[in-house]
Queue: 2 jobs
Job 1
Amino acid sequence: MAVLDIRDVSKTFGSVHAVQRFNLTVADGELVCLLGPSGSGKSTLLRMIGGFETASGGQITIDGEHVTRIPPEKRPTGMVFQSHALWTHMNVFRNLAFGLKLRRLPRDEIRRRVEAVLDQVGLAGYGQRMTHQLSGGQQQRVALARSLVLEPKILLLDEPFASLDQHLRERLREEVRDLQQRLGITTLFVTHGQDEALALADRIVVMRDGRTEQIDPPDMVYRAPATPFVAGFIGSMNLIDGAVQNGAFHHAGFTLAVPVADGPAILAVRPEALDIVQASAAGAAHVHRVTDFGAHAIVDIELGDGVRLKSQVPDARLWKAGMAIDLQPRAFAVYRDDVAIHRADRA
Amino acid sequence: MPASDIVGRARGRVPTGLLLVAPPVALVCWMIIWPIFSAIARTLWLPDPEGGRQLSVATYTFFFTDSYSLNNLAITLWTTGVCAAFLLPICLSIALYLRFADGKLAAYVQGLAIFPMFVPSIILSYALIRVLGPNGTVDLLLNSVGLPKINTPYLTPWGPVIGLVWDNIPITVLILLSGLGAVSDQSIEAARDVGANRRSVFWHIILPRITNSILVAISFTVLGIFSAFTLPYVLGPAAPEMMGPFMQRTFRDLNDPTTAITQAVITFCFCIAFGIFYVRSVAKNRKA
Ligand SMILES: Nc1ncnc2c1ncn2[C@@H]1O[C@H](COP(=O)(O)OP(=O)(O)O)[C@@H](O)[C@H]1O
Ligand SMILES: [Mg+2]
């Protein structure tokens, strides 16, 4: 049973507001992903939870116990760093045993626990290897095992697989998810990759400039992005800057009926929700390029003023560059002043 | 590729390679190796009464039976040991501070620590005399508040120790700092994360990674201090004196080059011993 509670936490470095009044409660056994572009304050937030940075303001509690002023060595958190940060002068066994030795556990118990955890991360029998004799993926597994062996209440991972190739990253991601669910350990996972977040998380926190943009389960973040930033950041998304007048959204010859008040607006449509039809007359847009991916195709569309959009179509052969077309969004959202004021889904 | 090709190519490269290393090797032989052998020869092939030369270890026997010479060797070893004992903890603390602190203060400390490198030994000697010598700045300050004078280290064995320690701080700090640069922040944070306090981090994470740098630093300073001249000459006592001033006085004042060269050869042997110790421990660490 471990609940992490973050209340109004801020961190400033000189004039840089790395994290601004951040709030989040992570439930027992939950895996929350912090997702955001580089520089959005994800690492800083994680490091404050681990105790490596002191919060400029706010409070962090773990199971109701204040940890904000506790040094990292006394916190019940375990951190896995981006570069594995293994101790190269120790072999794998000693890397894992170090924390247990500091806790003055008996030798047998240390051996038993280290071997059990090595087994869990799929590295049984690797105890005597030096760290430089391991592959990148194995090193990250050791780093994970080094945290897990101490049975922390909260597991913190800061882009742990960023330096690995795509294939390995996907495999380790699944392993982490399995392990986390089996152990039921409350976990905070930092990533700047949306795939990783969508695949792993119970909930995703989308961050931007040290602030929260949205906290929701993956499907909600994907289907109902709270802000244009989230809409553009997760998955691919057409964002069209325009204005609403008399119940219709306008942008360079393209119009769409929307039931919102007059004013500036951003229309967001995913490529898979943007249908196109051949125009009877001049059309609002024309086909710029067609890229065939076999199972589907992507049509690059150019609006009257040169703005480009993408549409995902089932059959590439129906479309040719230069063809005049009309746009028929099936599902879309309208944003004004950074909030969604209308969503439509004509599925 | 046929073997003859490789041989041919390798053979073609030999003259260029040799030409490249020849000048430095020749220079080393001429300026270092040859003088060593000639010095050893001159202390072993002594003139005999008939005007010829014969093999004799008389000068060495004299050195190792003469209590004055032995005292000088002892004070040299003592000074070297004491300096090393002071330098290591002082410089390690400074280097650790510089590695982990940031901001303006650290920059000033770094400047101060490196500063002695730019001060010639002779200037440093006189500065120390002005500050710590009889009626120096410290005495004047103490006097002005009505306190008794200090027991000045000037012209005692502690004079050279103070000077040599100060003089060797920059190189020692720089070597240790470069070793500490190889210890990543994340590996230290990972240690804190598993429960290591500052002391455990130092003992178990930092120290094992910088043993080589410590060895290099100690060897550098020990070699330099053992054969130091200016600071012991100006700041040290007249007797016993360190090997540097001892050689100079034997050579110039006593006009006895053979004995002076004997002293030099003995000094050289000690330095070689330190050198071998250093090379062996570095090699052992590499292997581990
Ligand atoms: N130690 C530091 N000193 C000064 N600025 C920092 C420090 N750490 C992070 N920052 C700044 O804080 C902001 C957030 O950084 P970070 O938390 O590393 O972002 P992320 O992990 O999302 O890429 C950035 O603008 C970064 O430059
Ligand atoms: Mg980061």
Job 2
Amino acid sequence: MSTQELIRQFDPGQDNLLNILHALQNTHPQNYLTEEALEETARYLKMTKAAVFGVAGYYSMFSLKPRGRHVIRICISPVCEIMKVNSMIPVIEGVLGIKTGETTNDGLFTLETAECLGQCQEAPSMMINDKVFNNLSEEKIREVITRIRSKKS
Amino acid sequence: MIQETRIVLKNAGKIDPENIDDYLKAGGYEGLRKALSMRPVEVIDELLEAGLRGRGGAGFSTGMKQRFTSESCLRCPQRYVVVNADEGEPGTFKDRVIMEQDPHLYLEGTIIAAWAIQATKGYIYLRGEYTDSIKKTKKAIEDAYERGYLGKNIMGSDFSFDVEIRLGAGSYLCGEELTMLESLEGKRGTPRIKPPFPAEKGLFSMPTLVNNVETLANAPLILSKGKAWYQGIGTKRSHGTKIFTISGQVNKPGHYELPMGVTLEDLIGLAGGMRGGRPFKAALLGGAAGTFVDSSMLKERMTYDNLKEKGATLGSGAVIIMAAEDSVEQILHNCLRFFRHESCGKCVPCRTGTTILVKRSEQLLSGHSDRKTLVQQMLRESEMMAATSLCPLGQSPILPLKSAARYFLEH
Ligand SMILES: Cc1cc2nc3c(=O)[nH]c(=O)nc-3n(C[C@H](O)[C@H](O)[C@H](O)COP(=O)(O)O)c2cc1C
Ligand code: SF4
Ligand code: FES
């Protein structure tokens, strides 16, 4: 589906802006909002480009820069901290070979932090794209990442 | 030992949340049927007299809010119901449980609220990360349309109501009702100045009712079983139940629905006791915008009013348990860091205040020589922020800070 077709599935009301941005970002293999997509959205909703870019840049789930195919967002809020997420982050960084905020060279993963994902009953927690992974341990992290890597090749 | 009282969660885990027939068999949409047989003001009076209070954190009377919304701007061509499903307070996941396990219940509550205030359009502002809640809610809406609980002439009446989902995008501040309305209008999520309240001038400047998922999930039960039944649950001043989400250092973290007025000790017991028998140190009640308490509060009743009198909060129902090995300073620092991250930067006291507080809490962590003065400074700064910030977010850091100081830091 082209960007235009995707956008036109929504009613052209400004209240649909966030829904459209989610759809655009989720269908881009690099999990981000391209300039062209944002311009197209602005035209469709009859908003200024500045307003649409302003919104896209404001919300933490949106990215204006290319990211990996799999965006890992690990929770650093209080419960996950109590449940020792601080010792999990170096593990993920090690397995991926990148620092938080970076993307792997093969374009497969981006690592980000997030605030409470609402999964505190099984903290520490992370999301990879729209999937939740709870009760993180060193083992589990290795396993999940290895599984995604092997699917690719 | 104390038992759960499941009313809002009565179907949770027992019915297929994606099968409307399951919901109907469990008495679903009976509350709506009852509501539609009453006049809208009677529905409002029923909720008002039942004593239902908002479960989003502030504990405001739901009936009152509906009355204000239904009586304001009578010439306005439209009024809206907005469901606050943007659950973002750290340690809170009660709305997620309702949405994942019994989505029709809060949808039914939403339709009842719409009838009460005579709204014909509603939006569910749902947290973007809650993939499963989104999926279940979508399915519930589809099925409700198909069976005539949404759309034109609901259940054969002359009442029509449409509802749509709008996704949040990772901003805690958008959980604040006026900010949510800005976000729904396709703008950046920065707060509006209160007043006017949403009841007077809400979404697209029309009278708007904003209610939390758990609040709305209570409405069908109150209507189908009656206010007297509801008043019989809880304490004299706090009726009904609350879904508490208990996390951290307990053996069985999770969601527990209990009558208003249980104690913190009861909750920990219900959650399987302290993890591996560790000694209790502190609880953070209500999330980051919440309050720390120590063991002297273990036997206090958890109601909006009692906790308020003791300088604590019930808030969203988050109960984060810390053990002897955990550091209150560290978790306080985490809360302050959270506010710095979520501050929208629109006003100076909050933008610079949150940064300063994080810096000072780092000094506290690294073992500052004059702890007492440092804590006093932080308290003064957070008081200043509370007095001069534009919106409730800037007024929040004082909550964990003051309570941490009172129970822990000043010793
Ligand atoms: C910073 C901030 C975040 C909030 N987040 C939420 C939230 O995630 N969910 C919620 O229901 N209410 C949240 N609230 C409270 C809402 O502003 C509002 O009081 C609530 O939606 C009213 O619904 P109720 O009366 O049913 O509780 C938040 C408030 C503030 C100040
Ligand atoms: S208090 Fe903070 S979050 Fe609220 S408007 Fe000011 S800067 Fe924004
Ligand atoms: S604090 Fe990490 S999921 Fe809630």
